Amino acid sequence: MKASISWLNDYTSINMDVQPLINALTMAGLEVESVTDRFDYLNQVVVGRIIEVEPHQNADKLKLCKVDVGAQTLEVVCGAPNVANDTLAPVALPGTVFPSGFTLEKSIIRDVKSEGMICSEAELELGSDKSGIMVLSTSLNVGEKLSKALQLSDAVIEVDLTPNRPDCLSMIGIAREICGIQKSKIKYPDTSLPDGKDDITGFTSVTIQAPDQCPRYTARLLFDITVEPSPF
Prior knowledge:
By secondary structure, the chain is of the alpha+beta class. It has a domain at 42-149: CATH 2.40.50.140. It is built from four helices and ten strands; from the N terminus they run E-H-H-E-E-E-E-E-E-E-E-H-E-H. It has a five-stranded antiparallel sheet. It has a three-stranded antiparallel sheet with strand order 1-10-2. It has a two-stranded antiparallel ribbon with strand order 7-8. A hairpin with a 4-residue loop joins strand 4 and strand 5. The two termini are 13 Å apart.
């Protein structure tokens, strides 16, 4: 069972650091096998400043950018429509492993070398926008790791559950265990449903064909459902 610390904090305010929490869970019978940072894949993504943009000599829709990444200046081929001079953006360095499993390497694109990748937020799984590069605040420091610049850190603990603890096979279950350790209260999500004002007969009907075997059958229609991650 994997549990994100930030998600657990939605249901209980964790008042200890990660390592003491791991020790406490293990002593409570929930052995923590591993701890990873959800944003480890950003370790080789830095804040870069685009200092020069020129047309690609062999492709109309591509541009050749010079990008300052602090320690050096890279030449990067980019096809995003919003790439522009003096823009700060995330730059993936060679060796970056993206969440999709793709490993970035130096390459030749239409006979021009490309030493990195200027990324969209969708490529970094930091949002859904894939229409262009992710434009960063000009207040950030060039060359700084993106995870540090944006304060992205979220420990994910993996718990090895034994067959007698199926109650912890959910975020709520792990959060409830932490509440027991901390002697704190759990904050359950609101699962209440508003009472409908419309008569259900205008939408559907229920017919009981065997009232001797099923004297009562109730039905409720739900509209405008949004599918989201469930803690249960």
